[in-house]
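[job 0412] stage=complex_fold ligand=adenosine-5'-diphosphate status=START
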Amino acid sequence: NKKKDTHLSQLASVGQIAAGIAHEVRNPLTAVKGFLQLMKEKKDTKYIEIAEAELGNAINILQNLLHVSKPDLEEEAHSSIDLSVELDALTQLFQDQMYRVSVHSRLQNPGSYILGRKNQLKKVFFNLLKNAFEAIPGKGAIHIEHMATEQEVIVSIQDTGVGIPQDKLRMLGTPFYTTKENGTGMGLTLVFSVIYQHNGVIEVQSAENGGTKFTITFPKETKNIRLKEVVYLELEATMG
Ligand code: ADP
Ligand code: MG
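[job 0412] stage=complex_fold status=DONE, emitting structure tokens
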């Protein structure tokens, strides 16, 4: 029996986000300062490239954040999107790249069209698949299922990975929350933000060492896509 626990409206606190940004941007900037000093002392221009790369890191971090907080800067038009086409393309992409994990895709009903922003939605599924891969040590599998009902399009992505401890579920989507050495902690922040803008709901079922399943439900007729500018995290966490 599954105990269902719902955390709605997890609005990450401004302080937490600010601290995250400060921390993330301070590191590359501190490095730039160091390399500029070295350059001055050693009169060697080789440090310019390293400093440039570090500045690039800082800019990337800020760009990721901008994307999440103001996705409409991109002004991508809404269009009718066949999610099964996008998911099949991603399945192919991941399957070609990573032999150690088998990716299975199953469409239950044709007609999984939704109205939305295609590039943003691609990023959503790309990030969920990337996380699934990264959660699988060695060999494993990912199952993608998509089905359409009269009202909704439902997509689930299930992996055989390490799973998420119950007490960490509420952290998902918080900017900069990562358990990976080279993680950004921005993937799920983007995912939640875009799904929310499409009036969708994301649900996660996970157990430590028991794999993870994300289920996303979109309404088919998303007439007025929300134009929120805040990072608003809506997570229904189902704990198995
Ligand atoms: P990142 O991938 O850069 O760490 P994300 O926002 O994409 O940032 O994910 C945040 C964290 O959530 C990950 O570091 C990981 O701990 C956890 N997570 C996300 N997806 C999964 C998954 N499918 N299985 C296990 N843990 C996951
Ligand atoms: Mg990620």
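The beta strands are 3-4, 79-82, 101-107, 113-116, 140-148, 152-159, 201-206, 212-219, 235-239.
[job 0412] exit 0
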